[in-house]
Amino acid sequence: MKQKKSNQILPRLLEKSAPVFFLLCAIISILTTIGIILTLLVETITFFNRVSFTEFITGTQWWPFGENASYGILPLISGTLLITVIAMIVAIPIGLASAIYLSEFASNKVRKVVKPVLEILAGIPTIVYGFFALTFVTPMFQLVIDDLPIFNALSPGIVVGIMIIPMIASLSEDAMSSVPNVMREGALAMGSTRLEVAMKVVVPAALSGIIASFVLGLSRAIGETMIVSVAAGSTPKLTTDVTESIQTMTGYIVQVTLGDASYGSTTYYSIYAVGMTLFVFTLIMNLLSQYISRRFKEDY
Amino acid sequence: MNLVDKQIVQNKMNKRIISNQIMRQLFFLAAAFGIVVLVVLLYRIFSEGIPYLDWSFFTNFASRFPEEAGIKAAIAGSLWLMAVTAPISLMLGVGTAIYLEEYAKENMFTRFIRMNISNLAGVPSVVFGLLGLTVFVRLMEMGRSVMAGGLTMSLLILPIIVVSSQEAIRAIPKSQYEASYAMGATRWQTIRRIVLPAAIPGILTGGILALSRAIGETAPLLMIGALSFVAYLPENIWSSFTVLPIQIFNWTGRPQEEFHLVASTGIIVLLVILLLMNSIAIFIRNKFSKS
Questions:
Q1: How distant, in Å, are the alpha carbons of A57, A152, A153, A231, B78 from that of A235?
Q2: Residue B1, in any domain of the structure
Q3: Which residues form the ABC transmembrane type-1 domain (chain B) (predicted)?
């Protein structure tokens, strides 16, 4: 009897400690978020002790190096938005059209070819896309646009768009294929063409999922780093001219960590203020995307 | 008397059918766009990179001369990084998934963890880089080491592993749980003997895909200062290191045309590694999804 009891100590201990261990694992993910927020917050506060908050959010000059340093983030934000807008102009129509094709028109055979290709595109590292933008897309545009500089907003913007296409296509397709067939059949029985079924029944029914995928794509474009670091240049500029060299928030962070901003300098702390801005932007987008897909989820 | 003018109806129908045909072609072109880009990208990279691809490319360190440049240190660094990232991220990810699926009660705290994980998945990788730089490199004084990089990468891919492990666990039929409990097994015994073995193919598939994401990531490691000119192999987890994507980034940034060709060669190696990992993941998925 006694022997049996001592044999059970280890299993019992495991039984008790297993849930604790798993809970600790789950808590790590919360600690990560807290770590991110604390890191950004603490260093950003140090930054704002040296640079006024008003200058930061309203200043139109971003010139963090040298004697007359100036920290107005608007040029970095405009650079980021410029890239994002170009990317979305490429990604939304092509992504949505691909989704419509895959979900409403394509035969199984075609779908079996196109979907894996989109998956491969989604899995290509962004440094490869950056290389592609710099060494292929830019030279190609240089043939068409006279005196287009090597670093410009146009080609990384387009390539960021290409990078996002698979995401928009696959999320929108998911939303569209969860529209029940009864609705399609109803419309077809009324004499609708496939196009009318797609545009007047399926897309409106799946709209919340589709818009959520756009917003998520937007967030991805804002946070994309390597493509813009490689191909957009490092000239913070308040401009809407896509042929100029610009800098994005992510591009600036990379530039500083690559270079020689010494630990403790205002320039060093500025990457956290920029990182905080970036974090807030993408967090809002991500929450918005989740909210849209939950709030407007159609019940069929 | 004709109530309906057949000609008008016919015209309207033709218009609708034609626009259906045209849009169908346009949608197809959009879907084909991805394929075209992929073909162009691969053609460019392979046609430029193949001439530099020989055995010495794998056995040489980085060099100022393009024809002598190699990826020995970068390959070793990527392997070292995986050796740290894989066990940590899998343990944390699978642990979190087991907690959420098996132990967690549906309450505020659980919902908070779920929401937190889906938000973490959307945080840009540079921000993870800033976290790694501050917490691991400076605060914990790990320096610009493999360990700091591996921990940063683990946190970055954690959400992907959690979600795929959750799906793998959820796919196990409830009858298997009931059978296990009916035999008198405890919860932990059921997890260890029934849930984990059944979920392992799914966990591995998701894990490999997440790790292939980590192998291709550049930005967070640039932040924590993985160096790009390393002429030695990392000796342990506290050594400084470089990885393939950073080596490629370095070559891309140089003005000399030759280094762009070398970068293409590096990209070929990177893409082949990713392709291999993805094939393994797909193989595992197909092999086990039949049952």
A1: 18, 10, 11, 12, 32
A2: no
A3: 75-280
**Residue B118 sits in the same domain as residue B48:** no
Query: Among all residues of chain A, which has the CA nearest to that of B122?
Result: A286
Rg, chain B, Cα only: 26
> In this structure, are B43 and B79 located in the same domain?
no
**Over the stretch B195-230, which tens digit does the pLDDT of each residue have?**
999 999 999 999 999 999 999 999 999 988 877 677
B241 contacts B234 by C-beta, under 8 angstroms: yes
A96 Cα distance to chain centroid: 17
Q: What is the pTM of this model?
A: 0.92
Q: For residues B33 and B26, give the distance between their C-alpha atoms in angstroms, rounded to a whole number.
A: 10
**B36 and B91 both lie in a single domain:** no
- CB–CB contact A193 B16 (8 Å): yes
- State whether B48 and B103 are in the same domain: no
Query: In chain A, whose CA is at the least distance from the CA of B116?
Result: A30
Pick from A136, A165, A224: which is nearest to B34 by CB? A165
pLDDT digits (tens, 9 = 90+) for A207-239: 999 999 999 999 999 999 999 999 998 899 898
Q: How many CB pairs under 8 A join A and B?
A: 252
The answer to whether B159 and B114 are in contact (CB under 8 A) is no
B113 assigned to some structural domain? yes
> Rounded to whole angstroms, how far apart are CA atoms B101 and B169?
7
Which member of B123, B222, B253 has the closest CB to residue A282?
B123
Asked whether residue B90 falls in the same domain as residue B174, the answer is: yes
**What whole-number distance in Å separates Cα of residue A269 and Cα of residue A48?**
9
Secondary structure of B205-257 in the HEC alphabet?
Answer: HHHHHHHHHHHHCCHHHHHCCCCCCCCCCCCCCCCECCCHHHHHHHHHCCCCH
Nearest residue to A128 via CA among B189, B218, B197, B276: B218
Q: What is the mean pLDDT of chain B?
A: 90
Residue B111 sits in the same domain as residue B29: no
Cβ-based contacts of A29 with chain B (< 8 Å):
92, 96, 113, 116-117, 120, 158-159, 162
Looking at A190-265, list the stretches that DSSP marks H as alpha helix, in order from N- to C-terminal side: 194-196, 203-205, 207-223, 226-231, 249-258
